[in-house]
Amino acid sequence: xxSRFTTLCLALVLPLAATANTDRSGHHxxxxxxxxxxGQQQREIKSLPDAEIAALLKGDGMGYAKAAELNGYPGxxxxxxxxxxxxxxxxxxxxxxxxxxxxxxxxxxxxxxxVEAERQLDRAFAxxxxxxxxxxxxxxxxxxxxxxxxxxxxxxxxxxxxxLTPQQVHRYNEMRGYAAAGGTxx
Length: 186
Prior knowledge:
Signal peptide: 1-20
Distance between the termini: 55 Å
Protein name: Periplasmic heavy metal sensor
Keywords: Signal
Helix content: 55-70%
């Protein structure tokens, strides 16, 4: 059974909560969107903001490799940025640049395929050409591409780590602010 204090608090707060989206006259306030997706129906692909589409097409990381990065597996983009501080030798620099080049090409390819798969899903709904079978097919394709893209990013961190010495990996993690939190592979 609620205490008198709890009952009093509820008696004061509930009417305020019930009127939070109304003006003084009791009318619904139209300046407060009733739905968090309002305006997003204008997007080319409803489920992807333009910035996310651009990042996918550029092959950006988008957090796909956090499991590797934050557990002590360096990525080539940051290794290139820190090359001097990590004292990379010429062969490590060349191998890292090559890894990054190959990775970006593959990530852009997968990103473009993912954008197209999301576009197909969006169009199927927009044109009312969707049923459960097509829905299953299209969403499975999106999921497969997301998995492939994430795997590409994570595998690149594995490959980069193999190009470095344990000391360089440790230094990388220190410089990125991860070593103090235990994010090293040693």
